[in-house]
Amino acid sequence: EVQLVQSGAEVKKTGESLKISCKGSEYSFTSYWIGWVRQMPGKGLEWMGIIYPGDSDTRYSPSFQGQVTISADKSISTAYLQWSSLKASDTAMYYCARLGSQWHFQYWGQGTLVTVSS
Amino acid sequence: EIELTQSPGTLSLSPGERATLSCRASQSVSSRYLAWYQQKPGQAPRLLIYSASSRATGIPDRFSGSGSGTDFTLTISRLEPEDFAVYYCQQYDNSRGTFGGGTKVEIK
After folding, report:
1. How far apart are CA A36 and CA A34, in angstroms?
2. Are A104 and B100 a contacting pair at CB < 8 A?
3. In this predicted model, what pLDDT tens digit does every residue of A38-83 receive, in sequence order?
4. Which of A23, A56, A98, B3 could crosslink B26 through cysteines, CB 3.0-4.6 Å?
5. Which A-chain residues 51-90 have CB contacts (< 8 A) with chain B?
6. H helices then E strands: how many in chain A?
7. pLDDT at residue A118, rounded to an integer
């Protein structure tokens, strides 16, 4: 069974850096795109970006380009989402998900809650 | 970037009733790249429909998707108690994707 296991909740201060992770298992990690989705408190889902771990091809939503960095380490089947300088508005739940062949999010991680305060 | 508008924002129905949810795109979307998800409180979203009308593995046949171009519909033929949740549509085009704002299906 395909599994995506995300790193635990984080509490950070504005201006700090952060890298959260998403480990895939029970499938060929380098053969499927993985994406990140933001959900701010009480709000809807937002498509952030995707990466193909096989060659690190990465695509970002214009809303998130330059705000976050998506990466992957295929040697340990893990994708990452990172910030260099957190803002309070980055407080949200972040989900990783593996894409299917028609660019839909087929399998989802459990989510990582990021809380940023001053 | 293609915008998706879902309507209504909230749908108040009783178990056993039919639910019809709309997703309208700001420009034409390939049906191959239109998906629907269900999210319950405190849970990750779950894929229901992909390619506009294909049910994901394990999804009951009371869920169906249809549409093309700019207008897509998710239909739940007879609501079960576990179907009360928020539903999102999502599209992928030109190397990026977007979600609709969601429709909450609540118990009347």
Report:
1. 7
2. no
3. 999 999 999 999 999 999 999 999 999 999 999 999 999 999 999 9
4. B3
5. 59-62
6. 0, 11
7. 87
